[in-house]
Amino acid sequence: MGGGRVAHPVLKGPSVVKELVIGAVLGLAAGGLWKMHHWNEQRKTRAFYDLLEKGEISVVVEEE
């Protein structure tokens, strides 16, 4: 009276190498985006101070 055998799928554990590669790629992508944002902010700040030194803009409100 043995029951029929049911074929169960073999579950594999997480692949350590695959996890490391995915983590490294995601980390580098996020780091690259953060650096690009940082460089853009630096560029805007430099442009502001260059215009300020040239006298093209002012931070003092003109009285009318």
TrEMBL record:
Location in the cell: Mitochondrion inner membrane
Mitochondrion listed as a keyword: yes
Keyword annotations from UniProtKB, A to Z: Membrane, Mitochondrion, Mitochondrion inner membrane, Transmembrane, Transmembrane helix
Protein task: This protein is one of the nuclear-coded polypeptide chains of cytochrome c oxidase, the terminal oxidase in mitochondrial electron transport.
An example Gene Ontology CC term for this record: mitochondrial inner membrane
This protein's name: Cytochrome c oxidase subunit 5C
PANTHER family named among the record's database cross-references: CYTOCHROME C OXIDASE SUBUNIT 5C-2-RELATED
Family: Belongs to the cytochrome c oxidase subunit 5C family.
Record-annotated membrane-spanning stretches: 20-36
